[in-house]
Design goal:
The protein is α+β, with helices and mostly antiparallel strands. About 25% of the residues lie in helices and about 40% in strands. It starts with a strand and ends in a 13-residue tail after the last helix.
Length: about 120
């Protein structure tokens, strides 16, 4: 069994994308993740939010966050495809520390919470 790694991916969908088309962007992104061998553990659509500062002449966008488990080091193809996509304003992919991933239950059962 190869080493499992946990990642969190956040994208900001362009405000020009209609609300009704957001699920299509989410489905397309999940397809990229699974095609690259990743498993989507959760998808969280935060909805449309205002930016702290203007990005590419835009002031708001729709934020979507995924928790992903994969044996691949990063998701280079997914990341590249999202960077090239016209409907994605920004993206951030980062590896979750093992302890945090275990606490969130991404590798199986969640770790019991400890006091302190």
């Amino acid at each position: 069994m190869a080493l499992q790694r946990a990642y969190e991916l956040m994208i900001i969908v362009d405000s020009d994308v209609a609300e009704i088309d957001i699920p299509k962007v989410i489905t397309r992104t999940e397809g990229l993740i699974t095609d690259e061998g990743g498993t989507v553990k959760s998808t969280d659509n935060w909805g449309r939010r205002r930016f702290a500062y203007e990005i590419d002449h835009k002031t708001e966008g729709t934020y979507v966050v995924w928790e992903i488990v994969t044996e691949t080091a990063g998701l280079p193809n997914t990341e590249r495809q999202l960077r090239l996509a016209d409907d994605i304003v920004r993206l951030k992919l980062f590896r979750l520390p093992e302890k945090e991933a275990a606490k969130r239950g991404l590798f199986g059962e969640p770790e019991p919470a400890t006091a302190g």
